[in-house]
Amino acid sequence: MSEYEKLVPEKTALVIIDLQKGITSMETKPTPTSEVIRNASILAKSFRDRKMRVFPVHVNPAPEIALKPKSDSPMSRNGPMPDDWADFVPELNISKDDIIIEKKQWGAFYGTELDLQLRRRKIDTIVLCGIATTYGVESTARFAYEYGYNQIFASDAMGDMSEESHNASIKYVLKRIGMVLTTDEILKLL
After folding, report:
1. How many Cα atoms within 13 Å fall on the side-chain side of residue 160?
2. Count of CA atoms in the C-beta half-sphere (13 A) of 189
3. What are the percentages of helix, strand and coil residues in the chain, rounded to 5?
4. Omega into 132 within 30° of 0, i.e. cis?
5. Tens-place pLDDT, residues 87-105
6. What is the pTM of this model?
């Protein structure tokens, strides 16, 4: 299953990427969005029940601060975003003890307090999940790898725009910088 026998509660945190209303309104593959949300919610509850840290991360969609690189396939928006676009989905049951991180780009480390907040708590292992595998999750994972964190990826609590892109990220990137497990396998390590 993995090289972990048990996760050390005080050294392990759950980082949930972009499970917010505006992003979860699109369908993901190979795991449908509803299952991604369900599995991430199960992980969050299990971590909270064990007094382990949960870091919900969401992106601020404000156009005045959005990155606008010149690209062959720019990210496009169809009209204004709803007021609740950045709100977390209610299934996550955000707790007063959760440490919410607001980001302005794909990854959750650059320009945020995520690394600082993890290090203050002596966390060296993160369980990562969310949407989209090749954007927010992989961008965050690459930084986490460079910062020296151990990583576990909840494969069935992540989804992408296509099954091919999700699988490529898992096979060629995430498996090289961490362990890829299912939600059930992670729960057995708690």
Report:
1. 16
2. 25
3. 35, 20, 40
4. yes
5. 999 999 999 999 999 998 8
6. 0.93
